[in-house]
Amino acid sequence: MVRSLAENARRSFRDEWGQVVCPTLVVPAQSSFIPAREADEMLRQRPDTLALSIPGTGHDLHLEQPGILHAALAEFLQNSPEEERDHSKAARRARLAAS
C-alpha cells in the first residue's frame, strides 16, 4: 500500500484533468505534497473550475476543518447547474452498470 501511495504521489494526472467536463471544485490544502504552482497550473488549464482555500489546512483538510469543507461542498453542489448534476448522475449510473 505504501508503494502504491508513493507511485500516485509521483504520477501526473494532467491528461485526466484536461478531460474532466463536469463542474469542479478544487480545495487545495495550504500545506500539501502538491506544489502550489502545480495547483495554479491546473486552475489555469480549466478556468471554469472553482477553487477554495481553507486557511491553516494540510493534506487532511477533511479531518482538520470538516465543517468548513462540508459547507463548501454543499454550497457547490446546490449551485451547480441541474443539467450538469443530471449528466453526472447519468455518468455515475453508467460506471456502476459497467462494473
The string of secondary-structure elements, in order, is HHEHEHHH
Question: What is the makeup of the main sheet?
Answer: 2 strands, parallel
Annotation, overall tally of beta strands: 2
* Shape annotation: globular
Task: Output the structural class.
Answer: mainly alpha
**Into which percentage range does the β-strand content fall?**
under 5%
Strand order of the largest sheet: 1-2
Distance between the termini: 23 Å
Description:
It contains 6 helices and 2 strands; from the N terminus they run ααβαβααα. By secondary structure, it is mainly alpha-helical. Strands 1-2 form a two-stranded parallel ribbon. The longest helix is centred in the C-terminal third of the chain and has 17 residues, at 82-98. It is globular, with a radius of gyration of 15 Å. The mean pLDDT is 77.
Layout of helices and strands, plus pairs?
Blueprint: H1 2-10, H2 14-19, E1 25-26, H3 36-45, E2 50-51, H4 61-64, H5 66-79, H6 82-98
Parallel strand pairs: 1-2
Give a concise summary:
By secondary structure, the protein is mainly alpha-helical. It has helices at about 1-10, 15-20, 35-45, 60-65, 65-80, 80-99; strands at about 25, 50. The model has no long low-confidence stretch (mean pLDDT about 75).
